[in-house]
């Protein structure tokens, strides 16, 4: 992972950027914070960018937009990552309700996805990138060699789920980021 940008996602009302290249320059890094500070949201954002869903029961809620976000701030996640030797940028916007631009009431903001190759596209993939959710999903699964379900069913991810979701913040955050990083850099680890 190189960079993660979030806006109006989870507890983050505005725009936030995580530069993983800078954080990892000296090796290992730790994501730490109080309960509710957004540590799990960072992992959710990575999963959402890659697969269009977040792990576990939070995916069923279908509420990824921050309730405190200003109406004019678009909810989106952008991930710049290298997978299987290919650098790509994935941007996803979930579907959510927003105030109408004219008149009273709410309107549905449709979800969007795009995958842009930074450099050469893999053989058999359109050089101009992808904009259909199914095509982006297929490309990510092909590059990673596993689906979201397969990743979450790995033994290591069961441990990660327990540690992160049961709020063992120090160890959980450290292991979570380490597992995601190793998985993206080295490939499947279980």
Question: Keyphrases for this structure?
Answer:
190 residues, alpha+beta, Rossmann fold, 5-stranded antiparallel beta sheet, two-stranded antiparallel ribbon, 7 helices, 7 strands, 24% strand, disordered C terminus
Report the CATH topology name.
Rossmann fold
Unreliable runs, pLDDT <50, ≥5 residues? Answer: 155-179, 185-190
Number of domains: 1
Biggest sheet strand order reads: 2-1-3-4-7
Spell out the CATH superfamily.
Answer: P-loop containing nucleotide triphosphate hydrolases
**Would you count the extended β strands for me?**
7
Report a brief summary of the structure:
The model is unreliable at 155-179 and 185-190 (pLDDT under 50).
Outline the structure in words.
The longest helix is centred in the C-terminal third of the chain and has 18 residues, at 169-186. Helix 6 packs antiparallel against helix 7 (169-186). The model is unreliable at 155-179 and 185-190 (pLDDT under 50). The chain is of the alpha+beta class and 190 residues long. It has a 5-stranded antiparallel β-sheet. It has a two-stranded antiparallel ribbon with strand order 5-6. The protein has one domain: Rossmann fold (3-Layer(aba) Sandwich). The protein contains 7 helices and 7 strands; from the N terminus they run ββαααβββββαααα.
């Amino acid at each position: 992972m190189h960079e993660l940008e979030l806006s109006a996602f989870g507890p983050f009302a505005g725009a936030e950027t995580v530069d993983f290249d800078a954080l990892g320059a000296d090796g290992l890094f730790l994501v730490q914070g109080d309960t509710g500070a957004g540590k799990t949201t960072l992992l959710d954002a990575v999963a959402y960018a890659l697969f269009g869903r977040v792990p576990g029961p939070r995916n069923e809620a279908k509420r990824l937009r921050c309730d405190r976000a200003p109406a004019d701030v678009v909810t989106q996640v952008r991930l710049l990552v290298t997978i299987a030797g290919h650098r790509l940028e994935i941007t996803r916007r979930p579907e959510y309700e927003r105030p109408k631009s004219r008149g009273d009431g709410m309107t549905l903001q449709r979800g969007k996805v795009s995958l842009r190759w930074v450099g050469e596209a893999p053989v058999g993939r359109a050089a101009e990138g992808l904009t259909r959710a199914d095509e982006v999903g297929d490309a990510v699964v092909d590059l990673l060699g596993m689906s979201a379900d397969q990743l979450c069913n790995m033994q290591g991810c069961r441990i990660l789920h327990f540690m992160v979701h049961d709020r063992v913040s120090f160890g959980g955050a450290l292991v979570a980021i380490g597992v995601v990083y190793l998985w993206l850099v080295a490939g499947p680890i279980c």
